[in-house]
Amino acid sequence: MYSDGHIPSAEAMKRxxxxxxxxxxxxxxxxxxxxxxxxxxxxxxxDIEAYLxxxxxxxxxQSRGQQKRKKDVLE
Length: 75
Hints:
The chain is mainly alpha-helical and 75 residues long. 87% of the residues lie in helices and 0% in strands. The radius of gyration is 31 Å and the shape is rod-shaped.
């Protein structure tokens, strides 16, 4: 199981376990912060898209009016 054939002592295993638990806490807090930032960015993206959709019909109507004017000018 161990490459060097030596079984670690119980004390060494406890230290290793404590180190791994500490690393887990650190990574967990980093993950929580990153996830919170992701949620904020995702919400901002949804808000911007909703804002742009609100004005999209007006832009389409204006472009239709411009197209009609161009056709009249060409004819």
